[in-house]
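During the no-cost extension, the postdoctoral fellow (Dr. R.K.) reprocessed legacy sequence entries with the updated structure-token encoder. One reprocessed record is reproduced below for audit purposes.
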Amino acid sequence: MKKIACFFLAATFFGCGKEKIPLLWEQQDSGTSYDISAVHFLDSDTGFAVGGASWYYGVSLTTTNGGKTWVADSMANKQLFALDFNEKGEGVAAGIDGYVFSRQVQDMNWSFYRYPVWEFYRGVAHNEETTLLVGGEAYKSGMIVRLDANFQLDTLSEFDVELDAVCFVDDQVAIAVGYGLVLRSEDGGRSWFPLPVDGDHFRAIHFPSEKVGYIVGYAGTILKTEDGGKIWKNIRNGGGIWVSNVPFRALFFVDEATGYLAGEKGIVWKTSNGGVDWAALEGLPEMDYYDVHVIGHEGWLVGEQGAIIHFQD
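Re-encoded structure tokens follow.
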């Protein structure tokens, strides 16, 4: 019996490797050596990214040819963590010390805003009428700032833990996630209530449709909803006895079934069946990835030391 048990454990830990998918990829020249925290493409040609270095430099990057060439510009004297665009192509970026920037479609420049809440803004969600900023420091304090259509401070909600990501499900419903916490708003971000979900430091969230959404955590948890974020199902239990910890940092779904996860130590996974199965994308540089954005069959990963990886899948 002991031999059989040992063989079973060995097979469990070592014999069931994750499927690997070959990938066509190239490293693009970002024009900066600073960490790149977030990336967003409006179409297959027009893309934006932000990053920097803690308290002394913020950088913005733009491309109009799918990343064949990037233009890097100094944007602030603080690092930027978050970036989002609405359906009209209007963007918001945010970062350390309460720095917020907006960019209108007709204006190539970013306008600077600052509010009384001088915190670390780590995530942003932007639609035509509202901007939501989430953040906090050291896992033990967090907040959500709601801005109106004129970028005036509307509502400030404070929490006991750091928040890292936020997204709109529709015009009124939004979900925010952070350190052991998932929050839901049904009034455009004016008020929030916690959902019965915990067990990880949740770092990213994405809804490819108004019904289906996904959340990932730093210990390797993957959550899925099929009812617009009311109920979340655990489809991967990060930190479980039989499941290895995986430091997820970002995710993006092309549709309800096809999506990508990215994280530290070169982690990039893909699912084609709504998270039932995942395969590792093979051959990518082993570095820390902080964000991923995909359009059709091509995507962009951004990460440490100015890394931008363009891939075709």
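Residues 21-312 form a domain with the Methylamine Dehydrogenase; Chain H fold (CATH 2.130.10.10). The CA atoms of residues 139 and 162 lie 5 Å apart. The remaining legacy entries will be reprocessed before the final report is submitted.
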